[in-house]
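Sample intake sheet
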Amino acid sequence: MKGPRTSVPSLRRRGGRRAVIAAFVVLAAMVPAAGTALGAQEVEAELPYTCAFPSGAQAVTVRVAARFPDSAAKGEAIVPAEVTTTVELPEAAVAELGAAPGAEVRASTELAVALSQGEARAEASWRGTAQPATVPAEGPLVLESAGDVPSVTPGSAGALQLRAGGLELAMEAQASSATPGAGEDSPAPVSASCTLGEDAPEGGLLATIPVTGGETDGPSEGPSPSEGPSASTGTDTREPGSADAPPGRLRVEATDPKDTPPCVAEEPTTVTLTAYVTGYSNVQKLDGASLIPLSCMVIEQGIAAEPGPNDEYLFRQPADVELSFQGRRQTPPAKATFLTYGFVPTTATMVLEQTEVMRLESDFYLGDPVKLDTAIRASLVLRLSDVKVNGTPLDVGSDCRTETPLTSHEPEPDRFPGPHIVLDGFGLAPWEGQPEGYQLTTGGPLTSEVTIPAFTGCGTSEGEDLSRLFTAAISGPGNYVKQMQGQTCLIQDLNPDHCTPDGQPVVIPKPER
């Protein structure tokens, strides 16, 4: 990737400015902070896989390493630590990249991990990114990816087993020249879906963790995630956002319990819902896609409207939606870590601030299947802070943000004036069979194509205005967003499959590209 060429008086300052510009890729390069877990069960499994490359299947060796606790208690979040997924591509598979020796290869992996405990089943996705590797003149190419992975909370006593499953591999090679000419364009990205070999040792078993029942068989007596430390027992050791798994079930949480924000409605009514949402966002100018942080939505359902003109729709379900984080209408502050221009480590913190109530409308069209057309209109300002380049703080001021909320195409501008984005969801609900796509209560994908406005307030303590540089590097149209909403929790009902006892959603959605 190349940033804009800006005339500045100093090479040192130029590097700092460019790093600041790339720091805004927080919208497109989200990597949660590393989780920690104590334990002494070291695991390194070498597993055979078959990967479906564009030209055909190739045998690939995958090594999965991690550290787990020796044991855990029922209701205790288990967080795998020091997780790496190493993919060794044979020479024939390296040829799929179409890159000459010396070219750099960047890669990401997504390993499906099956969780089982008695009759309980769940699946977690272990995602990782690899440091750039150089294509060898001959022999295999080794790509080692690392990243934070979801925790799992067992709801019962008994052995918890983790087994490796399918692997998704994405790779992109860059031309070996530092400044490729017209004839040295980088090859197209290559992706492959890989299946575990039938001869994998112990069926891909990674770890077995004994889980004890604790002092009682009932739910935890400690304070709920929305409460503070217990006055009688001292500091509550559970992290914010954690919750006991229902008995006999496994709760798969975000990459670290800290990354699962509490999701509690402060003054719920009989129609209040809570839900988690996450996803991926592209930044067109940076040609990148990344994770959007897990966020809490509180949804207040309205009164369904009458059919539209000429029975255009069966009925319309409105709702007001609020982001919720520590009493504020915003996403949790999300720390991003990435490599600026491929070699300068950069971190930053991003927050999306809601400026108006989000308006949701779901139209139900009669038929078999019933068609559901949902639009969520959200006014969100993007704010950036705490930028560090190669570990050195870089001052961008306390009010570095977009001038206006993000925008997208609005099909009804007279009804909905002002800057905002429109997230669209489509679903089908047959009279018999399972529904598909998005529905308000069950969740699903919401998509949009967003324009990032110009920036303002991005300045140093020395009075240097960096807003134009952010605008030149980042702002513009064509930024695809895909968010996944999880199953809602109807607080009035507290269905244990959907809700924790204090009305938080049980389902943590899995982001999809």
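Comment: The first strand starts at residue 41 and ends at 53. The longest helix spans residues 11-23.
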